[in-house]
Amino acid sequence: MRDPEEVVRAYLDAVGALDLEALADTFADDVVMDLPYAPPGFPRRVEGKADVTAFFAGLPAMITPLRFHDYRLDVLADDPGSVLAQYASDARILTTDRPYRNSYIARFRVRGGAIAWFAEYFDPVTLVEALGGTVTMPGQEVSA
User: Which InterPro entries did the record assign (predicted)?
Assistant: First the structure.
């Protein structure tokens, strides 16, 4: 059985390459994915291996491989099944041809050699802008 850090590394490698088969192999049947900072149009929670895998299956139509890099993985001392991960992406959005480079922090719970739960935190403004949207601070609006 793979240790939690190895499972999380396999997940990051699979998502980074958009290798959906390898990705599905990292999930428990009852996996839960939380995306607390997801912008409108993206789910904040997805439950079950089939639905989480289906979420990722939609990515290749939207984005180039994410090429995750600069992993920093820390197994929590008080919970050896939990891993805190920091990483970054370097991809392009296909519809806009804009770069998508973001930084992430995620927490994973690994049970029986598979991911049972994870929450990923990223800058949603970076994603919205890469998709062609804009975000402006009040008082900073540009007049036409």
Answer: NTF2-like_dom_sf, SnoaL-like
